[in-house]
Amino acid sequence: MKGIINKGIQELVETKFGVEAWLKIKELANCEEPFFAASENYPDEMTIALVKAAAEVSGLSPEEVQVEFGKYWVPNTGRKAYPTFFQIAGTTPREFLINMNRVHDIATRTAVGAAPPKFSYEELPDGKLIMRYHSKRKLCSVLRGLIMGVGILYQKELEVVEKCCMFQGADYCEMEISFDA
Ligand code: HEM
């Protein structure tokens, strides 16, 4: 996974729990990287170990850490790292979410070994948006947090309901998003 993800975990932990907590988490995760280069590829196992250690140190569950990461990453780490994408990705949370295949394709085009997530969409007559998530990494808790993070970016509280999940044997995770919650 690209370093910008691990960097987001570090920024989240340092902001919410302090630098000491981050050093402890790195130690628990056996991570010896002095810093994360945003566009460098790091093993997925490192990201998983950091999330697990962050859960141990913070007292949150690994799923809660993933949700908090997503909520933090979009309006903070992501926005700082990719200002151009944030300018062009949309004027509403719905537009922004619908543009995510294009954004991920462009953001990882030149990155050897990157494996961006794939999304498919359905717009329901009542205004809700179905966002289906396809990825071997099964990071649907991260996805939930990132969707909420898009809401935070636009100062809107979005409702996110997971209708089916890869952890229950589905081929993809399906999030139903309401924009007028
Ligand atoms: C402009 C905003 C964004 C940029 C530039 C961006 C870029 C990236 C990059 C570079 C990765 C690492 C991919 C890899 O190393 O293989 C990633 C991972 C991911 N992104 Fe984004 N992202 C953005 C916003 C979002 C949003 C809003 C969502 C969902 C609503 C999302 C969903 C994900 C997920 C779930 C992953 C984890 C990888 C996986 O599941 O396979 N991203 N993103």
Concise account of the structure shown:
The chain has eight helices and four strands, in the order H-H-H-H-H-H-H-E-E-H-E-E. The chain is an alpha+beta fold and 181 residues long. It has two domains: 64 residues, no CATH class; 91 residues, H-NOX domain, CATH 3.90.1520.10.
What is the makeup of the main sheet?
4 strands, antiparallel
Q: Can you count the beta strands?
A: 4
- Secondary-structure-based class equals alpha+beta
The CATH architecture category of the largest domain equals Alpha-Beta Complex
Q: What radius of gyration results from the CA coordinates? A: 16 Å
If you average the pLDDT, what whole number results? 94
**Total helical segments:** 8
Helix fraction by DSSP (H/I, runs of at least 4): 40-55%
Terminal residue distance: 33 Å
